Amino acid sequence: MRSDIYIHHYELVSRFGLNSRSDRTRHKGVLIKIGDGVGCIHPWRELGDPSLEELIEDLRKGRFFRPLVRSAIKCAMVDGRARSQGVSVFDKVEVPRSHATIVGGSERIEEAVAAGFEVVKMKAGRRVAEEVELLNAMHERYPNLRWRLDFNNVLDGGGIRSFIKSLSDGLRAKIDFLEDPCEANDRDWAGIRSLYGIPLAVDRKVEEARGQFTYAIAKPALDDITPLCARAMIEGWELVFTSYMDHPIGQCYAAWCSGKVEKRFYGLEDPVAGLMTHGLFEPDAFIERMGDPSPQWQSPGGTGFGFDDLLEDVKWEKLK
Amino acid sequence: MRSDIYIHHYELVSRFGLNSRSDRTRHKGVLIKIGDGVGCIHPWRELGDPSLEELIEDLRKGRFFRPLVRSAIKCAMVDGRARSQGVSVFDKVEVPRSHATIVGGSERIEEAVAAGFEVVKMKAGRRVAEEVELLNAMHERYPNLRWRLDFNNVLDGGGIRSFIKSLSDGLRAKIDFLEDPCEANDRDWAGIRSLYGIPLAVDRKVEEARGQFTYAIAKPALDDITPLCARAMIEGWELVFTSYMDHPIGQCYAAWCSGKVEKRFYGLEDPVAGLMTHGLFEPDAFIERMGDPSPQWQSPGGTGFGFDDLLEDVKWEKLK
């Protein structure tokens, strides 16, 4: 009994560029389907991922070991198993609260506050003067709002220091962490761990970062979760689970992984996560099903990772 | 809160060489411990694994992605979690029956039959005349006993054909499969899939084998199990779960993995497994705790993967 692999090309359209390295607003990926199980592959070339074509070729050849393919396969297996049992994967899974992932200006932040978010994550470092002005102004308006600033390594050590210095003391006290503030080979990196008392977070380059951080970003779209949690347990990292700004199926997989991890066993503190990213994109049927972005995860319902009826209408292409 | 990694060097002593590529009888590995969770790393250099020293260095540096290290970490996390809950990992897990793994002659086979084994796995190909004689004689004595012959690629295409031809028809009908009968780049390999009606199995080189086999050997000590099961589902392989001829802790981990896999979901037939290998080694306290080898898996009891009292007496060395 053999199962075929099917794929479906999709495109997500964002209102703005979604990281500090690119202004791209069209984001291509594929849904994959094996049996009844669905996953997604959504590479970010500007962040070092292989091309979508290479990953599809891996899939075709049964090479399931590159991170994005491996995770899509694992997602599809979890999904298919739950669908075959007629249950939602989210039954009895407690997904942590999320920060708001913001691209754009004050309006988006106002929306986030109105939606109940207590923490906002913003890309930063590309238009420093504007960003500093916005942050200071928003902190005056919402003094309890907490911040996470993701620089994607675009500044150097001096740049990041002058960025932080230009923030008010009160605002600095409300920053959860600075993510990828500068390249770890920067001469300012050694011994940094926190910058003016603000903890650091590292996304992709945990090896190069040589332990100079408090938070590691855990991405179920890429990471082998159990070894990563073991590493966190050994190194004393805290893990911030985040989605990959990918298809809602991938977003659901990330949320499910973050809820399944037994944080108490690993000694993890379970900080606010970053699982709420579908609001970055123009609505489509899948995105609308996720509801309005809010700090508390909402299951899309249905079986497996949900979207049962929408998946019936997807046009699948047999891979081999 | 940081956890340290501890290791403990062990040596298993076998009565004979344990694969067709070596006569080595002393086999070194390490137990690892993180928190209360235990795993083992047991490389087989003659089968292409990295050295124990390299793997320990990976462990020290937090590089948990090479297969033997990754699996030891996963084992330790499963084990630690169950120990922290005071439960055995084997509660409600149904481990499949196993073949007897035999090295040596008729006496071992007699023992296996007496212990209730219905299937015997033997290394073959190094002393062809002796092996053929033994097999034909044993088949006459035990006509219902089934066989699995593992050649570790030591013969060429011609050699394996002449081996099979020298077996009686009745015996051939009792062979479950021929494992790694010859190198996949042998000119006799293409289109082979079965040899005189006997299915083939492939252990390490599933890529090179280009689908010319019915059974793939699944080794939880090396394999990322979910992607492997997905691959089997897609390619129509059957999986034979086997231990790694490693420490009883690793043997238990393999047994647990094989019992946890939802074979029905993956469309797997759940053939007799190869999880009973501790009998190949001179007894020590851990091996004795596993009981006499028998086709039906016996949990060693205790919490996690068991051996609670024995692990208390292990001398652990802090890794960093």
Automatic annotation (TrEMBL), chains A, B:
Domain Mandelate racemase/muconate lactonizing enzyme C-terminal: 106-199
UniProt keyword Protein transport present: no
Pfam assignment, any one: MR_MLE_C
UniProt KW keywords: Lyase, Magnesium, Metal-binding
Protein name as catalogued: O-succinylbenzoate synthase
Taxonomic source organism: Rubritalea halochordaticola
Gene: menC
